[in-house]
Amino acid sequence: MKCRYTTSVAVLLLGWGIVSAQAQYYSELPPDAGPIFRMGFGPSFFQDGQLTQYGGSVSSPVDFQTGVAFDAAFGWAFNRYVALDFESGYIGAEINNVPGYISDNSHLYNVPFLANVTLSCPIPHTNLIPYVGAGVGGADAVFDTDQFGPSPANFVTGAESDVVFAGQAFAGLRFQLARNFSLDLGYKFFATDDPTFTYPPDNFNVGFKGARTHSVLLALRFNF
Fold first, then answer.
1. I want to staple 139 with a disulfide (CB 3.0 to 4.6 A). Which of 88, 100, 110, 173 is the partner?
2. What is residue 4's predicted lDDT score, i.e. its pLDDT?
3. Domain ranges across the chain
4. Which 3 state secondary structure label does DSSP give 25?
5. Tens digits of per-residue pLDDT, 7-24?
C-alpha cells in the first residue's frame, strides 16, 4: 500500500513538472508565436499552355477552362511578422481545346508540396494584416484523360504522373476576427517545371509546358 502511494505521488509530481515546463515554455515565447494551421479554396486561372510532346516533339497551344485551387498548411509563427509552413493541396483544370487533337474529359492538375515563408505587417490599431510570401518545393503533376490524341485511332487514355520542381509567390490581406482566428483573401501565382507523362506499354511520352496559374483564395488561419 505504501509503495502504491509513493508511486502515485511520483506520477503526479512528474505530470506537474511536465505541465509546468510546457507552460513556462509557451510563456517565454514572443507574442503571437506558436503553431499555425491554414486552409484556402478558390478559382484558379491557368495561363495558356503548350503541348510539347506527343510521341515526339510537337508544339500546339493548350487552352484551359477555369480551374480550382485548394491548399492546406501547417507551420510555425516565430512572431507576428514571420512564419514558416509546409503546404500541400490541389491546383487543376480541364483542358478546353488543343488544336488538331481530340480531348475528351482531359485534366491537368498538380498536388504541390512546398515550404513557405510568410512576412506579415499588421496595421496598428486595426485588425488588418497585409502579407506577402513565397514557397519552393515540388509538385506531383497528373494528366488524366478519357481520350487524348490527334485521331480516334491514335490516342492515350488514363492517368499518369510526373514529379517536377514547383514554386509560388503570394500576397493578401488578413482580417483578424479573434486572437487565434483570422480570415484572409489572397492571390497566388504558382508555377512548375515541364512535366512528361509516360504511357504504357510502349513508354509513349505526352509532355506539356509547366503550369502557370493565378488563383484567388479565401482562407482561414488558426493560431494555437
1. 110
2. 43
3. 1-30, 33-223
4. helix
5. 444 443 444 444 444 445
2's grid cell = 505504501
Strands 102-104 and 82-97: unpaired
State the Cα–Cα distance between residues 73 and 116, nearest whole angstrom: 9
DSSP state of 32: T
Domain 33-223: CATH architecture, name and number where available? Beta Barrel (2.40)
Q: For residue range 20-41, what is the model confidence (pLDDT) as tens digits? A: 444 454 556 677 899 999 999 9
Task: Give strand ranges (E) for the chain.
Answer: 34-46, 49-54, 56-64, 67-77, 82-97, 102-104, 107-120, 128-151, 154-178, 181-192, 196-199, 204-208, 212-223
The mean pLDDT value of the chain amounts to: 89
Exposure pattern of 11-33 as b/e (b: 16+ CB <10 Å)?
eeeeeeeeeeeeeeeeeeeeebb
- φ/ψ of residue 105, rounded to 5: 55, 50
Q: Give pLDDT, residue 144.
A: 98
> How close are the terminal C-alpha atoms of the chain, in Å?
42
SS3 202: coil
Contact present, 142 and 108 (Cβ < 8 Å): yes
